[in-house]
């Protein structure tokens, strides 16, 4: 019998790609999602890619009783990948209580049920936002975490601490936090990709929607940062490469290859790319022009960050493989498909 994995937020952007990779690796997947930022039709697309429709339960993980009922129903869960969270930096500045309520309570409810139902393996969807604006680049896993620039970033820091402290108190628990940099792109089939409901908060879906004529122009938030071209720098990773890192993390936990009960890894490419460089790369890869304008900086954004991925590369045996042009072309093909 295949091992069963719970994926929270599994119909979302990163979650759906990870479900495909898990199923391709022989795992049975159960998704929990409240569909607040995704559509149930994603389940059909996952089946078209992998040949398997994952089990699905729709409810909000901040409802403690529903979480408990879920674990009673699915007694064979062996590990959890926890994606479900509110994730827009700008929105979190405007609605901090919503972010703290959703992101913290959903994790705590899951971990309480993990303890009650003896599920001991957790992979957590963390973020490079835990580093704030680092003093030195690139960031390693030893780079000190700094005060977050946004409530969203702070929820990731607090969630990491909740996991760390719970594992200290319960040595039977094992956890891995994957600190993502900036996931972009789409599956090679163009059947799943990033499709936020409403106006996108992330760069790439706003960019592709602009080129497709859905939005009038792309806003570049700031051209006065201390970078070569004045625009903010990030580390952009193909979502499929990121999804594969989750499969490796699950296998590490289930096969007891972890060296500590709580571990954390930077998951990026190791390359810093500015927003204006993203626009140039997209135009080069697709042959399309990106209408854009420079506007004021956005609250909660940091200036520049990119990863040193050597620890994840060596310890996990994982590495990002896609080029930036390939990744952006996949995002454009997804936009054309929808």
From TrEMBL:
E.C. number(s) listed in UniProt: 5.1.3.2
Alphabetized Gene3D superfamilies for the sequence: NAD(P)-binding Rossmann-like Domain, UDP-galactose 4-epimerase, domain 1
UniProt xrefs under PANTHER family: UDP-GLUCOSE 4-EPIMERASE (PTHR43725)
InterPro entries: NAD(P)-bd_dom, NAD(P)-bd_dom_sf, UDP_G4E
SUPFAM superfamilies the UniProt entry points to: NAD(P)-binding Rossmann-fold domains
Assembly and interaction partners: Homodimer.
UniProt keyword annotation of Signal present: no
Enzymatic reactions: UDP-alpha-D-glucose = UDP-alpha-D-galactose
Name the record gives this protein: UDP-glucose 4-epimerase
Cofactor(s) essential for the protein: NAD(+)
GO (cellular component) term, any one: cytosol
Coiled-coil annotated residue ranges, if any: none
Organism for this UniProt entry: Labilibaculum euxinus
Keyword Transferase attached: no
Sequence ranges assigned to domain NAD(P)-binding in this UniProt record: 6-327
Keyword tags: Carbohydrate metabolism, Isomerase, NAD
Pathway recorded for this protein: Carbohydrate metabolism; galactose metabolism
GO BP annotation list: galactose metabolic process
Family to which this protein belongs: Belongs to the NAD(P)-dependent epimerase/dehydratase family.
GO molecular function: UDP-glucose 4-epimerase activity
Taxonomic lineage of the native organism: Bacteria, Pseudomonadati, Bacteroidota, Bacteroidia, Marinilabiliales
